[in-house]
Request: fold
Amino acid sequence: MSAYTSLEALLHDAFWAEEGEAAELPLLERLLRDHPGPSLEVGCGSGRLLLPLLVKGHQVEGLELSSEMLTLCRQAAEDLDLDPVLHEGDMTTFDSGTRYASLLLPAFTLQLASDPAAALKHFHKLLAPGGVIYLSVFIPLAELNKELPEGEWYEDHRISWTEGRSATIETRHLLHRKERILQREHRYRILQADGSIGVEHLSHQTLRWFTARQLRGLLAKTGFQPLHAIADFDPDLPVDEEAQIITVVAQAE
Reply:
């Protein structure tokens, strides 16, 4: 059950598109304007955020573990007459030799690392002196507050697909509260017009979450000084105990 392959790769951006405009794009653009120079998006996927940044003239490379997602990214880039610099590799070991002015970890990418502290220490080595890191993380409040049934399948998204078909994603999760680990299984399906299953794909995710205080401590421990933080992708909303999504920009010391 590898991540971001098969239907998961194919449907990833379609489900994101249902959420509307990418809330992180303006934040990423602001960071790249404030910190010019070569940048690397870690976990660029099929280019949902990377390609719009390139269209606007920013100097950003992409790193992605899934070869299928990179293929989709190259196809989408070709349609836009772009030729992005893309790397296939693991975020915890990748090193192109370039020292970047900024590293971008949007869409909760850091939470996929099995050891976030080790990952951050590695990212520190990839930055030029004074370089910055952008990252967003979320706290699974719906799961913690039991608004979603633990251990049971529930439908996350359903969208129209081609030829009268529909695409769905169902999720089943398990919480390890003490360790702050969320395990999720995703079941992707293409349903025929009559409702029967045409194609199905299963994947598994393990995510770690942090409180705002824990995240500050993690950054300090790994050599980063937070510059600013916001809640729920709102530049005017400070982080407090009610925040579900925390976005931080931190500078390498």
In short: The helical segments are 6-17, 25-34, 50-55, 67-79, 116-126, 141-144, 212-221. The first strand starts at residue 39 and ends at 42. The domain at 141-208 is CATH 2.20.130 (S-adenosyl-L-methionine-dependent methyltransferases).
